[in-house]
Structures are given as structure tokens and as C-alpha cells.
Amino acid sequence: MRFGTDPDLTGRMIALSGASSMEMTHSLRASLDAILVGVGTVQKDNPSLSVRLVPGESPLPLVVDPRLETPEGCKLLTSGACRRPWLLSLAGGGPGCDAAAFAARAERLRAAGATVLECASDPACPRRVALGPALVRVAGSASVRSVMVEGGARIIASVLGQSGRKPDEAERSLAQYVVVTVAPVFVGGTRAVASPLAPPATLAHDASAPRPRTDFPALVGGSVYQLGSDIIVHGRV
Questions:
Q1: Is residue 197 a contact partner of residue 173, using CB atoms and an 8 Å limit?
Q2: Coil, helix or strand for 160?
Q3: Which of 13, 80, 105, 220 is most buried per CB count within 10 Å?
Q4: What is the rounded distance in angstroms from the CA atom of residue 76 to the CA atom of residue 70?
Q5: What is the C-alpha separation between 226 and 233, in angstroms, rounded?
Q6: How far is CA 177 from CA 4, 20, 69, in A?
Q7: Does the CA dihedral 213-216-219-225 come out positive or negative?
Q8: Is pLDDT of 83 > 80?
């Protein structure tokens, strides 16, 4: 999971990753079956999610899009260089969504080449897609065995938040391996993860003491190396 760009205060994207890091990202894309982003990333960045900098086949784009808000003019639906995406939505768009308008959007998006997969909602938040069951369905329908999670912040937080932090929780983990690119640029004001990844503090914790790091997802057997001007941190979760 990694970011290559982040927005500044005006919303304009900042290219943070260096050339070598971008080649690494495209190599990762070429080695995996699918690439996962949220609809917000599609709306803001209009990404291609393709392999361009190295030889290889582009992964299948998966867009978490509960209400089918993917722009019909985005590159994923109009560019000949992009694979057509699978849109992971909620049935009828979820609570509060106009079912008729949702059905009309689904028809237009399918006509543009998208595959719309209606998924179960997250029990903790009915307006969000339950990512684990959704990815299981994708695996069964599209022969997807590996997925690269590229963003945005909410999707990364959701995937990491469902990653097991104890050996007996491994079967419930969504994230298995993490790659973090650290660019030597001081931007400020941006967060790669949208929300805290640990559960609320329990009575077992002293409220006056810092939370133990074991409460949070962590890298296991991590490694660090320099790639061009960037630092790469990677390891199992």
C-alpha cells in the first residue's frame, strides 16, 4: 500500500515519489492481479491504474464505490490504455440512496464497460462496503488472487484496521504486506491513513499512560532501503 501523490491546500496534486519509486510501483502493479482504490481517488486524481513504466500487464482496477459515483468521463472508462474497472457498490447504493437514480447510473456505467458488483455493507457502517467479503467475491468471479491497495486514505485505514495483530487473527487479515515510500519532501497537512487503526482504549489500559504499540498493526520482519532519493520501508503485517 502506498501513495505516489498527495494534494496541497488548493487540491492540486503533488508528485512526491521519485522516478525509481514510480518504476517500483509499476513493477508491483505488473506482478499482482488487481489494484484497489476508493471512488474518492478516482474523482480527485483520475488515475489510469495501469502499467506504463515497466513491461507487464496492467492489473484489474477495483473501485470501492458504494453509491456508484465514479465519473463517467474518467480515464478508467474512456482511455484505451486502461482496463475497465470493477465497481464495488452497495445494493441500491445503500441507505438514503435513490434506488432509481442508482439503477440508472449502474446502467450507464455498465454501458461504458464497467462491471458493477453489488456487495454487502459493513456492519459497523452500513454506508460502506464490507471489503473482506467483497474481495472474496471478486476472487471467485475474476480469478483474482492478489490485490494492491493504492489508496486513498480511508481505504488504506479500512484495510489496515482489519489486519490481524496477533497470530491467531491472521485468517482475518486483509493486508498481508505493506510497502511505504518516504519522500524527502516536507509537505505538511496530509495523512496517508484517515483514522486511528487501534480499537478504542479498554479498561485494561491506564488512561494516563500512552497506548501500547501492540494495540496497532505493525510490520513484522520489516526492511528499509534507499531507492533513488526515496526511502522504502516494507514488511509483513
A1: no
A2: helix
A3: 105
A4: 9
A5: 9
A6: 17, 20, 29
A7: negative
A8: yes
Is the confidence at residue 198, as pLDDT, over 80?
no
CB-side neighbour CA atoms (13 Å) of 116: 23
According to the model, what pLDDT value does residue 135 have? 94
Structural domain containing residue 76: 5-200+212-236
pLDDT value, residue 212: 80
Cis peptide before 152 (omega within 30 of 0): yes
- Interhelix angle 153-161/131-142, rounded to 10 degrees, is 100
The model's pLDDT over 87-111, given as tens digits with 9 standing for 90+, comes to: 999 999 999 999 999 999 999 999 9
Strand 60-64 relative to strand 34-38: parallel, antiparallel, unpaired?
Answer: parallel
In three-state form (DSSP H/G/I as H, E/B as E, the rest C), the secondary structure along 188-220 is CCCCCCCCCCCCCCCCCCCCCCCCCHHHCCCCE
pLDDT digits (tens, 9 = 90+) for 219-236: 888 899 999 999 999 999
Is residue 24 situated within a structural domain?
yes
| 205 within a domain of the structure (yes/no) | no
Q: What is the CATH number of the domain that holds 39?
A: 3.40.430.10
CA torsion angle 136 161 119 93 (round to 10): -160
User: What is the H or E stretch that residue 105 is in?
Assistant: helix 99-111
Number of domains in the chain: 1
For 53-67, b/e burial (b = at least 16 CB within 10 A) is eeeeebbbbbbbbbb
- 206 inside domain: no
**Average pLDDT over every residue of 8-13:** 60
Q: How confident is the model at residue 201 (pLDDT cuts 50, 70, 90)?
A: low
pLDDT of residue 180 exceeding 70, the answer is yes
Residue 207 falls inside a structural domain? no
